[in-house]
């Protein structure tokens, strides 16, 4: 069986480089999803109800985001990573060895949201150079959402 060539106006080398960058974004997003879900399960204290619900909203959004990012990687002709081992190698977001107190959870999630923003933003030069508007649009949407979420979480710490 032969593979149908991809002819979307982006050279293969650029497509694969963009997919590699998106794989880092996918790993960061999935790791943040896992961390947020972990915090949802284990948050305690006086803000339990509001944080439990907020974290649920956030991890549900992240679950949808990983699918969008992975499907963009596939659209570019690359395989999307999907193992914990691959994600651990690609992400910049650290794991927790145990569930921290609620306030530290919030601070950790702010840092995670901002890390995703930095990863997304780092891809723009390559994406713009390849005239990959679809990926640029995805990155812009992700940045807007993560910056807003970081602001909302940061506001809880003031």
TrEMBL record:
Residues 20-158 form the Ferritin/DPS domain. Belongs to the Dps family. It comes from Pseudaeromonas paramecii. This is Dps family protein. It comes from the Bacteria. It holds the Pfam family Ferritin. InterPro entries: DPS_DNA-bd, DPS_DNA-bd_CS, Ferritin-like, Ferritin-like_SF, Ferritin_DPS_dom.
């Amino acid at each position: 069986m032969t593979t149908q060539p991809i002819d979307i106006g982006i050279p293969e080398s650029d497509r694969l480089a963009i997919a590699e960058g998106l794989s880092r974004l996918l790993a960061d997003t999935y790791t943040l999803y896992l961390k947020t879900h972990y915090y949802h399960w284990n948050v305690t204290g006086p803000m339990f109800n509001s944080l439990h619900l907020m974290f649920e909203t956030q991890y549900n959004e992240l679950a949808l985001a990983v699918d969008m990012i992975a499907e963009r990687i596939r659209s570019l002709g690359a395989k999307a990573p999907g193992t914990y081992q691959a994600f651990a190698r690609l992400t910049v977001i650290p794991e927790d060895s145990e569930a921290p107190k609620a306030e530290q959870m919030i601070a950790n999630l702010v840092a995670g949201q901002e890390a995703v923003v930095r990863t997304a933003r780092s891809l723009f030069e390559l994406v713009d150079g390849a005239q990959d508007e679809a990926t640029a649009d995805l990155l812009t949407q992700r940045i807007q959402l993560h910056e807003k979420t970081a602001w909302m979480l940061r506001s809880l710490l003031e």
